[in-house]
Give the backbone structure.
Amino acid sequence: MALENDIRDMARLPIFQEIEPDALRLLAFSAETKILRKGDVLFQRGDTSDSGFFVLSGSFQIEAPNQRDTGEFVIHPYSLIGEMALLIDTERPATVTAREPSTVLKITRAVFHRVLQEHPKSAIRVRASLEGRLARFTGGLTADPSLLA
């Protein structure tokens, strides 16, 4: 029953909505459940990234990545932390800490890539979705030059 709940919860996110049901089942089944206590660090800024984390319960504080950012960044359930790490090799841009007892599903890049290789229709849909999001983001940058500063 827990697997079915994880699949249902993951399907709330746009990136996972693009993935066929069998592929999403494999992704959820292959994910590692991590339970964190209040104050536990999920990852540190500068760490090598190899996975994304789907938040099942609790909440997380994201440390501002630079001194210009002064707002509080909080991540709640049914969010994906480290989405880019599912796609490419990169460093973590911020430190993420549990604000309360929390549970995440750790999805490694290797598993995500394997699922997309085994389900090419899902891969095509994920790619198109990401291309659309990137186009909207870059269009916003060109429309507002202050975002480039």
